[in-house]
């Protein structure tokens, strides 16, 4: 399938961080009270796709851990900034001989950006635990990232909206 067929078949919509997504699961089971005094669903999941016309998932961080699962298309490059300022680069894809990974865990509290560097699309799923809530996501602002990680600005500036 091409990207347009996948967008239609999977009912994908534009995502605030870039690319396309569709929520596929939200657990009815709830956690206890979280740090913001709200119970959360235990797990949520989405399809997420970057395309040649929307190739960047802009820099953001989530409170929860997220597991990313590669499904198909071209590989996706991940740029993960840990709280200590260490930049980690990973590639989610199917060519294990080239060091690509089928699954990637990004811990809550880390900044991450994703890029489709070649090809028409890269399709993944994400599982989030506790489940995703929009108020748990922070899109990076230029001033914040420049101040917090000046040593990385030259490498990550294109991923900040």
Structure summarized in a few sentences:
It is globular and about 45 Å long. The chain is 11% helix and 46% strand.
Structure description:
With 161 residues, the protein is mostly beta strands. The protein has one domain: Jelly Rolls (Sandwich), CATH 2.60.120. 11% of the residues lie in helices and 46% in strands. It is built from three helices and 13 strands. It has helices at residues 3-9, 142-148, 153-156, and strands spanning 13-14, 20-26, 30-33, 39-41, 44-51, 56-62, 65-73, 76-81, 87-92, 103-106, 111-116, 121-129, 137-139. It has a six-stranded antiparallel beta sheet, with no helix packed on it. Strand 1 (13-14) and strand 2 form a beta hairpin. It starts with a helix and ends in a 5-residue tail after the last helix. Residues 4-140 form the DUF985 domain. This is DUF985 domain-containing protein. It comes from Methylobacter tundripaludum. Pfam families: Cupin_5.
């Amino acid at each position: 399938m091409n990207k347009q067929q996948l967008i239609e078949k999977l009912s994908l919509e534009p995502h605030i961080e870039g690319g396309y997504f569709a929520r596929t699961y939200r657990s009815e089971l709830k956690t206890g009270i979280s740090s913001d005094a709200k119970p959360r669903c235990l797990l949520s999941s989405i399809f997420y796709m970057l395309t040649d016309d929307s190739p960047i998932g802009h820099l953001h961080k989530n409170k929860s851990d997220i597991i990313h699962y590669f499904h198909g298309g071209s590989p996706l490059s991940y740029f993960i900034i840990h709280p200590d300022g260490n930049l980690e680069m990973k590639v989610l894809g199917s060519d294990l001989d080239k060091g690509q990974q089928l699954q990637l865990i990004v811990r809550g509290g880390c900044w991450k950006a994703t890029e489709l560097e070649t090809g028409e699309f890269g399709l993944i799923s994400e599982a989030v635990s506790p489940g995703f809530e929009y108020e748990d996501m922070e899109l990076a602002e230029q001033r914040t990232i420049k101040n917090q990680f000046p040593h990385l600005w030259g490498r990550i500036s294109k991923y900040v909206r």
